[in-house]
Design a protein that fits this description.
By secondary structure, the protein is α+β, with helices and mostly antiparallel strands. About 25% of the residues lie in helices and about 20% in strands. Strands 1-2-10-7-12-5-4-3 form an 8-stranded mixed beta sheet. Helix 1 crosses helix 5 and helix 2 crosses helix 5. The termini are far apart.
Length: about 325
């Protein structure tokens, strides 16, 4: 457990040291003192429960669209692109996806940038307000953590430049209970590694999240008010392998509904992802070839969501 409440204060050095230790070894941490008010997170979870409590046809009215925004119905997402385990069964979760709001005059919309555009908003009182309030707080937290990790590695400019105009995603997840005797490969979320930058996960007290460590799969016990933090594969590439992305999965065997909200701070989609110059040397040669983040997104979404098989175009 890392208290990041003084990340911008006198204890910044020790906080950075703790974050680096976690994210260069296990690849995961839980942080408290992050500054997102409890009422903001509570309102987000209330909004998620209100949406997922709507009749199915009302949820389908805002089904996932070609901009990757909207309702993702249960049994429609299979992690076929995962490098951890080839999923054969669809994830036992439903969710609602929101990205950065971009109107018709937004530069990315005018330029035809992949996935740039407006969100879909369900007809649920207070839903948009709750979501956007949480988005703003979560982005600020993720940026502070990214800056701290990059500073600790001595690679601030080379790591954070691609996040100046980031790609952001907020996924409101509902995991219905799964029978305790269900097949072991029937997951709430199949084993996978996040492919972007930094993930912040707010979860309820039900549990079910597990990370892979050398000894096997380790439960991540929920801590009230804490955020689970992990790095994605693009951050691994930007840091030339210093920051580790860790495989994780969800098994909801608790006999009750599980709720969580995952916020992702990723580079701009047109960013060419290549290791920071300051992290490349004779003793630490470049480990990764350059990739364009948009190409990664196309592969990931096209391989995981049946609704995107013909929607994500080059």
């Amino acid at each position: 457990m890392i208290n990041v409440g003084d990340i911008d204060g006198l204890s910044r050095g020790s906080v950075i040291e703790e974050l680096l230790k976690a994210h260069t070894t296990s690849g995961f941490s839980q942080v408290i003192g992050h500054g997102i008010p409890e009422e903001i997170t509570g309102a987000l979870f209330d909004a998620s429960r209100a949406f997922h409590g709507l009749p199915l046809e009302r949820r389908r009215a805002v089904a996932l669209n070609h901009l990757h925004r909207g309702f993702i119905e249960i049994d429609t997402s299979v992690d076929r692109h995962s490098s951890v385990e080839q999923a054969k069964r669809p994830n036992q979760s439903e969710s609602f996806m929101v990205m950065r709001e971009a109107g018709p005059d937004d530069p990315d919309v005018l330029a035809g940038v992949l996935l740039a555009g407006p969100n879909q908003w369900p007809d649920v009182p207070g839903f948009r307000e709750a979501v956007e309030a949480y988005q703003a707080h979560a982005e600020a937290v993720a940026r502070r953590l990214l800056d701290a990790l990059a500073e600790g590695l001595g690679a601030s400019d080379g790591v954070v430049a691609g996040f100046t105009r980031p790609t952001t995603w907020l996924r409101l997840l509902h995991y219905p209970p799964v029978a305790t005797d269900a097949p072991p490969d029937l997951y709430g979320s199949a084993p996978h590694i996040d492919y972007g930058g930094i993930t912040l996960l707010a979860q309820d007290t039900v549990g079910g999240l597990e990370i892979r460590v050398p000894e096997g799969w380790l439960p991540v016990e929920p801590v009230p008010g804490a955020l689970v933090v992990n790095c994605g594969q693009m951050l691994e590439r930007l840091t030339n392998g210093r920051l580790l992305p860790t495989a994780h999965r969800v098994h909801n065997r608790g006999g009750t509904d599980r709720w969580s909200a995952a916020f992702f701070l990723d580079p701009h989609v047109d960013t060419v992802i290549t290791p920071a110059d300051s992290l490349v040397s004779e003793t630490h040669p470049t480990r990764f070839e350059p990739v364009v983040f948009a190409d990664v997104i196309r592969a990931e979404l096209g391989g995981s969501f049946e609704s995107h098989s013909g929607l994500i175009q080059s």
